Amino acid sequence: MAKINPSPSPFSKDSVHFAESNRQLHYAMKNDPALQATVEAKHPGISKWVAPKKNGKFRTTAMKGSTWHHHPVVGGNLQLVSHEDHKNRHGDYHPKGRNGKRVGGRKTWGGGSSCRK
User: pTM of the prediction?
Assistant: First the structure.
């Protein structure tokens, strides 16, 4: 899980959120071998993916087969989840709000779809 708040801004583009999430996961796994083993077992190759590139910058996307999910309730939190699971269980990841419509974290705390790109 990564925390986006206050920096970078919750209203930053997804690419900014994802680069920061990759950075946080890289250092969390680097400092906790047990965490690295657990995450690597769920997402083989993730350690290499989230490591900084030769230019020192972090990738601005999730690894193929995964996605960074904006948590709908806990503001500023992104979770690395299986892309297939996120797609197949969309309703679980995006619960219904007060108006009865599905709500995601990007909408509840991250500025909505207009901030995605």
Answer: 0.88
